What does this fold into?
Amino acid sequence: MKDLKEKLMEYEVVIGLEVHAELTTNSKIYCNCATRFGGEPNTRCCPVCTGMPGALPVLNKKVVEYAVKAGLATNCSITRYSRQDRKNYFYPDLPKAYQTSQQDRPLCTNGYLEIEVDGLLKKVGIHRIHIEEDAGKLIHNESGNNTLIDYNRCGVPLIEIVTRPELNSSAEVKVFIEKLKAILEYTEVSDCKMQEGSLRVDINLSVRPKGESTLGNRTEIKNLNSISAIVRAIEYEAKRQIDEVKKGRKIIQETRRWDDEKGVSFPMREKNETVDYRFFPEPDLCPIIIDEAWLNEIKSSVPELPDERKNRIIAEYKLPEYDANFITGSKTLADYFEKAACKSKNPKAISNWLMGDLSKKLKENNVEITNIPVTPENLAKLVEFIDSGVISGKIAKQVFEIMWVTSGDPAEIIENKGLRVINDADEIRKVVIKVFEENPKAIEDIRKGKEKSIGFLIGQVMRKTNGKAAPDIANQLIRKELDRYFDS
Ligand code: ADP
Ligand code: MG
Ligand code: ZN
It folds into this structure.
């Protein structure tokens, strides 16, 4: 992206996000149907969520609580007298022909998140958070001649989080989304599974010459569902717009779609004139009034948030900031870490495992840390065995592999497989003598001054003991044996 870097000397990129998050309530926003992901198509619906004439909605109280919780966790003001509005449009995934949403009295307003990019802190404004209902899913047949509709998702509660146009790069957006995601996970407002569509991001992007104070015309790229797609789409779109502007062309305000496979965005529909949704207050639902007592109750349910947890983990376990950042980026990872670290004398080693081998395994196997065979207690034990010299770091990796498959206790694995470090000098000496017999050339090389061959001999001893010889003892014995050789 050197190309983009050059362009950014003259132009500034401006980005605002609209993030949709599905809430983790058990039932839908206006009826008792289940919200769970999946299920046979059209089995989790009723007259209310399929918009049958005359069916009446009843607001799920939890939806308000979750949205307010998200607002409190993102420094928003809470609207004490709020209401819901109809947003009218026709599309087959929404049988009512309107979406119940919030227009001029959203539940939360004027918040912010603080992000850190390249060591610089920045506050990014959150314009508003409102509640609304999700639509169904259209399943387009591959042949392209028919479309099926699954209404299970219809009426699943959403919050829409709208930021101010205050982000200026893909790197900032990445950090912002990761932070927002962590906060929604910590507060248990959303499971944020992007691959299942519980967190979807729309990107509004414009460019302007550096120093210019008015905003340029923006385009909107809808429904991105992975962080890598978000980053790539931003970089592509920024470059495209700067190229257009440089050619003296105007940016058309339009909605674009991102094709992640081809790595390009293309126009979906023009939004030259703002669509008029004919918003009006939803007459079937009463206003939402949040009194002091209810607000306090919700406030007291906000848990420790990622930044607080990060600072506590640094203080309590003496972890470097980098580690603490990584670990608290996900609630479940942080939970795992604390379960292991509180049982360990070496929290830094636990952190190394989490950032290294364990993360790698999670990725390779595409599993969640809440679902793995290696328990935090067993990981703490493994670290203890390394620190007390019972096994070497290299052997520990083997033990870890076995723990990953069998969920075994490291103590048993080490005993059963005979993986303990060999500290017995006599036993190691026998191996050393054998290695000397087998490698006269290496010894000749050492005599001629080729020090490196000592390393080769140590390697041979380790190999013959399957990596179990205590390296310091092996080293000592080899040097002694060499002295004896050269003296004779
Ligand atoms: P709409 O109601 O048409 O969706 P909003 O004014 O609510 O428009 O803005 C939607 C999103 O677009 C917000 O995240 C906002 O920050 C962002 N946005 C608005 N104008 C611009 C612009 N010129 N450049 C980049 N982002 C913008
Ligand atoms: Mg919009
Ligand atoms: Zn229903």
